[in-house]
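Budget justification note: compute hours in this period were largely spent on complex prediction jobs such as the one shown. Inputs:
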Amino acid sequence: MAMTEQEILAGIGKIINEITGIPAAEVTPEKSFVDDLDIDSLSMVEIAVAAQDEFGVEIPDDQLKHLKTVKDVIGYIQG
Amino acid sequence: MSTDRVRVVVTGFGATTPLGGDAASTWSALLAGQSGVRTLTEDWIDSVPVKFAAVAAVDPTEVLPRPEARRLDRAEQLALVAAREAWAHAGIEKVDPERLGVVVGSGIGGITTILSAYDTFKEKGWQRLSPFTVPMLMPNGPAGWIGIEVGARAGVHATVSACATGAESIGYAIEMIRSGRADVIVAGGTEAAIHPLNIGSFAAMRAMSTRNDDPQGASRPWDRARDGFVLGEGAGILVLESEEHARARGATIYAVAAGVGYSADAHHIAQPEPTGAGVMLAMRRALENSGLTGQDVKHVNAHATSTPAGDVVETIAIKEVIGGHPLVTGTKSMTGHLLGGAGGIESVFTVLALHERVAPGTINVDDLDDGIEVDLVLGGPRTLPGGQIAAINNSFGFGGHDVAVAFTSV
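Corresponding output:
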């Protein structure tokens, strides 16, 4: 069964908290990784690899650069 | 003493060592004659002939936030902990970033990162390597992170000279301030190399003590039964400042970083030169560079690693250059040998010795070796005289590096 948007958001929040220390509650769909969450490109690579483990969806580098917000990542994972 | 140039003073220090998680706890354990060495229980221990080490008393991952710790090599973690303590201790509220620098090195760099990353690479492929692998393994990583932390733009440098690294860094920092490149420098050394490959490799050189039945007695500089050094980890950092800058902000000055002497043995890649010529040259140059005479020097924190070859010849060199009068201490008997971190913590100890007028002791010397004609501090600490006095921290490293840093009382 496909994960709901809420489940994916919770999973992403957990990953971002683990990697950056940002509280999971601050990771909301409209947030931009760079502008709002201050996440650098190296940390985005870590997040993408962790997301692959968590959701079983690979995010290639050429796709990753287009994922600007949390919502973009949720959309990509949902397919 | 010369007065025609910039004087450099010590206005802060920090340390995280096998004896304590900060400079104060390390220093009190040192004065109490405690050993920071313990038996190792890691699952790899049966693969190496040495079963003990001087592990950092406070694990840096317990002090640092987890997101920060996971992108730092352990040597970087230890350096950052010590640098934060030193920086807070110095209490510098405002400094021109272009006049602030960092000189912090390590002997080996991010060796545990290299080895674990290679395991990840072989088992899971390159995609699973942390994107922080390179900044974790590079030997200038600790200096870089500290530079970002304090906002240093005058220059961030990492000297590498094996076990002389920490002292060389402090010497380089003194010269940076004197030459006008900076007003404030965060300087010292760090190391985190307790790993079976390193233990195996040092054991292959027959450089380490194998006193497995008595780990706390294994580091015994100058004792006839010494059989090698004890591997330790940690970091020691000083904040050095031009006297003018320190006075202008009303800083507490703990000591004067009076000068440094460098030389090289040009003899053997790992064995000390047997006459002590290189060590003597470094100490002579430290005196000249500081405008001191041997009579001014009342205390020497010796390199004294507890290896059979080096300990006695260092005392011969001290007697020749400085005299038989200074109180000579081997603090590695308690801390183990922090390699690139050694010169850092031992400079902190030398500064504290001058500030508190006390020379720490040397433990485990039960049967003094022959040929030692200097005044070793054995057993408990001894009081240093009042008035204007100087002290020297010696550090030597594989590669034939000899460094002597001179400090004077305020």
